[in-house]
Amino acid sequence: MKKENIKPVDPGNNPSPHYSVSELDRKARFVVLFLIMSGVFWLLLGTLLALLASVKMHLPEFLGNAGWLTFGRVRPLHLNTVVYGWSSLTGAGVALWILSRLLKIPIQLRGYILVAGVIWNISLFVGSIQILAGFSRGIEWLEFPVSTMVAMVLCVIIISASVMQMIIMRNVKQLYVSVWYILAAFLWFPLLGLVSSLPVFDTPTVQAGMNWWYAHNALGLWFTPICLAAAYYFIPKVLGRPIYSYGLSLLGFWGLALFYNWNGFHHLIGSPLPTWFVTISISASVMMVIPVVVVAVNHHMTVVGSFKAVKYSPTLRFVVFAAMSYTFVSLQGSMQSLRSVNEVIHFTHFVAAHAHIGMYAFVSMMLFGACYYIIPRITLREWHSKSLIKWHFWLTAIGIIIYVGALQFIGLFQGWSMNNPDVPFTDTVTMTIPYLVARSASGILMGAGHLIFAWLLIKMVFRTSEQPAGAQVLDNIRKEFTV
Amino acid sequence: MSTGALILVISSLLIIGGGLALFLWAFFNGQFDHIQKGSMLPFDEEEPPGRRTDQILREIEEGEHQTRGSRK
Amino acid sequence: MIRLSILLFGIIATFVIAMFGLTIVPKFFIDEGVREPTYLTSFEITEGHRIFVREGCIYCHSKQVRPEGFGADFERGWGRASLPTDYRNLLPHNLGTMRTGPDLANIGARQPSRDWHYLNLYQPRAINEKSIMPPFPWLFEVYSERARPGRDGLSLPEQYRIPGMKVLPADEARYLATYLISLVQESTGTE
């Protein structure tokens, strides 16, 4: 690379090398692209599985003779591919890039991360075939057999080692709150994965407890911190305006660490688990209101009044949509954990829709937004089509709104009818069918959005006619991007 | 039930006490003195605050040219 | 560096405390009472449980009855509230979180007939035409009418019959039906 990118070493107080932004991005290019691209592959596969499962809900005979495509195998595989494939791989790529920028150090152990990424993808393939072939572990969110899970966790540990090394060798003094979140995520997830794979949870009720401790924390301690880190980075970065209150962001971090850990058992209200255990989780879920409101105030107060900037920036469109969804889904979650509400909505489609606000409207939209910021900077190319970006945004946003609106509306009625013994059970099924059809339609919208995103990405990365631009082109691009 | 309640009370007292102790330590140690300074960490001399980035959907949105930077 | 260590300590401590609280402590309260009884679980039931897990039944059928007064589980005739001892220590746990179909914790008491289960597994719409349960034909074998004399095929409604053929449950269907019929919460869990 050209010499002028590396600024002269400060001879005085700061003996560490000083990396320019373009230098950092150039070194991040291959690793981050690899993680994001493989994530998008799993997104497409996961979307296909989702559509299949959704259609099977209202057309039960559709592909009904194929044992390996039965609903009970396709649905868990959909969850596992989008969770451990799309969200985890892409999330790891986004987190590494943000860290590299914030710590002013290139991504460390890049070769090892690539090897880990390849092994991760292989384990996902193996695990997917295992689930379709009927070797699922049978625990929600943990359907991959233990061997596959451990292989994936070891890959995350390699990335965690890189994260730790970047933090120790950093070229800045203070750690921004995004770094806190990412560091926490990369410590929490390996611990979660390993503990959940231990063979000590060997009676059913205890295993159910472990199950929901794990499943809720996989969202709360792995995806949420990465995505909040992205929001704390991209909102100020795109707006050119610092976050509203840094003190609040730290309060939000510790609130999340303290309370989210304890939330899992609110999935087990009414189950044979001792009531007082469940009560701990209910109170912790209500306490989650504190970090959520803190984060909400912080994000929305930073964005407020900059509507035009949100409109013009593909990144901020997705990020602000995701941040709003986070506030909504978390407050809704606190409410759902109350016994009186849970009595109605537990065991209904309401909860499935709630999970999709979390994993899709929050996590996936945040990752889309992050990709729109990161990829032009590491490939030094512009997005192929601006109108396609808009199409991607509106298809996915409208898709998830239809999904959530339809299923949460009917989920309430499903719950009320289920709790009314005069309504025959079959009626609680038939009443949902038009809304299940609406879900399939919304899935087609979201799937179309994903195809557009994948197309844009492929056009950008595999445009063989143009070689990656040099540093001077980068400056031009950056001027275009800035106002 | 009573064992459960006892465990709950003791552990919650421990957690609250520990949290309070840590907070007081941090407060009197001066950790919160210049707290807002941290919000400037995403910016540096190459990408300074006050400049918007990633406004690529701008030109097709606005037909006439617009020079208002609306900087803050 | 001291700040980083405090950060690391906080991250690990908050996690580990909750991990103990939600995964290890329940073990002390539940495991002992569950381990003690001998369930005398037969091979058929264990295999049936495995097939139940393999086909992902749990994504539509919960297996936990809520206590009387919380929801209408009792009023629907699904029996008393489930206890940790009701699960025969069969792993993975099958508590479930969804009731697209009815709860199965007490299905053996409601539907003790093997033929009902065979029919429902082979073609759920043969029993309830509004059902959206997927069919599981791969648990069954289709023979010519003349084969296996003495064994009657499933008594399917006209539109689901295959002319000149009869449908017999394969081993897997028999295991699964045995398992489903064994799900009775009134008993202590031994058969």
Folded structure, characterized:
The complex is a heterotrimer of chains A (483), B (72) and C (191). With 483 residues, chain A is mostly helical. Chain A has a single domain (17-466), classed as Cytochrome c oxidase-like, subunit I domain (Cytochrome C Oxidase, Chain A, Up-down Bundle). Chain A contains 17 helices and no strands. Chain A is globular. Chain B has a domain at 1-29. Chain B has two helices and no strands. Chain B has helices at 2-28, 58-61. The radius of gyration of chain B is 25 Å and the shape is elongated. In chain B, 12% of the residues are buried. Chain C has a two-stranded antiparallel ribbon with strand order 1-2. In chain C, α2 packs across α5 (171-182). With 191 residues, chain C is mainly α. The longest helix of chain C has 34 residues, at 2-35. Chain C is elongated. Chain C has two domains: 1-36; 42-182, Cytochrome c-like domain (Cytochrome Bc1 Complex, Chain D, domain 2), CATH 1.10.760.10.
How would you summarize the topology of this molecule?
The complex is a heterotrimer of chains A (483), B (72) and C (191).
Chain A: H1 21-58, H2 71-103, H3 110-132, H4 146-168, H5 177-197, H6 204-239, H7 246-259, H8 275-287, H9 289-303, H10 307-312, H11 314-336, H12 339-345, H13 349-379, H14 386-418, H15 425-430, H16 433-461, H17 471-481
Chain B: H1 2-28, H2 58-61
Chain C: H1 2-35, H2 43-54, H3 107-110, H4 114-122, E1 140-144, E2 165-169, H5 171-182
Antiparallel strand pairs in C: 1-2
Helix pairs in contact in C: 2-5, 4-5
User: How many separate structural domains of chain C?
Assistant: 2
Our estimate of the beta-strand percent of chain A is under 5%
- What is the string of helix and strand elements of chain C? HHHHEEH
CATH C-level label of the largest domain in chain C: Mainly Alpha
Q: What is the CA–CA distance across the termini of chain C? A: 62 Å
Ranges of chain A where pLDDT stays below 50 over 5 or more residues in a row are 1-13
> Uncertain segments of chain C of ≥5 residues (pLDDT<50)?
none
Report the CATH superfamily of chain A: Cytochrome c oxidase-like, subunit I domain
The major sheet of chain A is characterized as: none
